[in-house]
Design goal:
With 332 residues, this protein is of the alpha/beta class. It is built from 9 helices and 10 strands. The N terminus and C terminus are likely disordered.
Length: 332
């Protein structure tokens, strides 16, 4: 995993600043909720953040917990394929681990975490890896633990009225996702993948979460929109945040095509096409940076937020109803 991580392009301080600004915007987008309100804080002792980057989400949650009587002793573990964005200094209560999220987690992390947080990983997980990834994530959740997953699809961006810039942006992002083996839109495949892992329920036992052999149950599924959002901060920041989110993806599209065009064994017409496409994408990026499209400032986006919970298996003759819902059993 370390060797694979070394092949990832090293990111610079601008990337760290971008991720920090993104996290602040998303906190306002979620109405201040770093952890979805449907997830109880009282039982959280260990939290994982997959694709943690700088660990900014963990840092914000830890700071929030420090101001309350809940979660003060929570241990955080951030996983990422690359160490390049990890903080230079140790942070109390936080551990950073280099791990490729599409590979199974080491046994030491199995059934360890009460909450696993995922954000924007659909841009790094191929369509044929999604179910295996979900199964690996479910393995590190404790029975009864929660998964919180947030994604934005390229096709969930639009402008009113429709503009050429928005259409080009979505066209190239979707085309690049397909070329890399990713799903063009992530939300529906993720929901299906969350329903795929199964659990063995022996005779005399039951899964009261859903009365089936499903390992995960979706507890909450919502779509948030920047359009007419009640937060003034979201409305003032959405244009710049969209640029900060989209432009690196478009730049990656252009770089990929430029690199392929330099391969000498390619037919000349393929090389020419790649060169033309790279130039078009670069021109689009520069136009977006300069704000040459007068309507691009009105771009809107949708975000999907999913909360799922891992099953607990109970004996049929035990107090499974009260234990599953976390309530005290009535005295006999």
């Amino acid at each position: 995993m370390v060797e694979k991580a070394a092949n990832i392009e090293k990111r610079n301080p601008e990337e760290i600043e971008r991720l920090s600004a993104q996290s602040h915007f998303l906190r306002a987008f979620h109405n201040g909720h770093l952890i979805h309100p449907s997830i109880p804080r009282d039982g959280l002792q260990a939290i994982a953040d997959i694709g943690t980057g700088t660990g900014v989400w963990m840092e914000e949650v830890q700071q929030e917990f420090a101001t309350t009587n809940v979660g003060r002793n929570v241990q955080f573990t951030g996983f990422d394929i690359s160490w390049t964005l990890f903080p230079d200094q140790n942070r109390p209560g936080q551990t950073f681990v280099v791990h490729d999220a599409v590979q199974p987690f080491p046994d030491e992390y199995h059934e360890t975490f009460d909450l696993v947080h995922i954000r924007f990983l659909s841009y790094g997980i191929k369509a044929d890896q999604l179910e295996d990834f979900v199964e690996s994530v479910s393995e590190i959740l404790r029975p009864g633990g929660y998964l919180q997953w947030e994604e934005i699809d390229a096709i969930d961006a639009w402008t009113i009225p429709e503009t050429s810039t928005a259409k080009q942006m979505i066209y190239w992002l979707v085309k690049e996702r397909l070329a890399k083996g990713l799903t063009p839109a992530a939300t529906t495949p993720i929901v299906k993948a969350l329903q795929s892992p199964k659990i063995q329920v022996e005779n005399g036992e039951m899964n009261p979460m859903c009365w089936t052999d499903n390992l995960l149950r979706i507890y909450h599924l919502e779509t948030l929109s920047t359009h007419n959002h009640p937060s003034a901060q979201v409305n003032s920041m959405k244009y710049q945040w969209t640029l900060n989110f989209v432009i690196p993806l478009l730049q990656s599209c252009a770089s990929t095509r430029s690199a392929k065009a330099k391969v000498s064994r390619l037919p000349w017409d393929v090389t020419e096409l790649l060169t033309i496409e790279a130039a078009k994408i670069t021109e689009l990026v520069e136009m977006m940076k300069k704000g040459q499209d007068p309507k691009v400032g009105e771009i809107e986006v949708l975000m999907t937020r999913i909360v799922a919970r891992k099953a607990k298996i109970f004996p049929q003759n035990g107090p499974w109803l009260s234990e599953w819902h976390g309530t005290e059993a009535d005295p006999e």
